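User: I'm putting together notes for a lab meeting next week and I want to include a structural view of one of the chains we've been expressing. I don't have a solved structure, so I'd like a prediction I can at least talk through. The sequence is below, exactly as it appears in our construct file.
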Amino acid sequence: MGRIRQEISVDGRKCWTLFDTGARNTYVIPSVAEVLKTSATPRTIRTALGGAVRETNTAALLEAEIQGHPISTHALVIEEIGKDEDGKPIEILFGALAMKQWGIRPIPYEEKLDLSHYPEEFV
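Assistant: Thanks for the context. Below is the predicted structure for the 123-residue chain, given as structure tokens.
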């Protein structure tokens, strides 16, 4: 499992993000969702995250910039994601499906992301 922590830009704001291949979905907290397009989900979505079951009725379109590369992906809005190993609150948890979608590969031993597979053309 790969986990990388770094800031990404959302609407010009730096957000502390955990890239985690152990998480399937992408999540954002309400303060990040304020600057995103959100919509109500047709039913309550329950998800296990950080040892607890979280519920949400809100989805968001996460449009951000990662190391100069624009991305757009779906995210679920949850009250709190948790804190990283240093106790810093995580604002975005970027999951495995979004990493695959955008060709992002974590390199844990270097504590960085490999964006060499980022799609330059969309077909």
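A couple of points you could mention at the meeting. The first strand starts at residue 3 and ends at 10. The beta strands are 3-10, 13-20, 27-28, 37-49, 52-66, 69-77, 92-94, 105-107, 112-114.

User: Perfect, that's what I needed.
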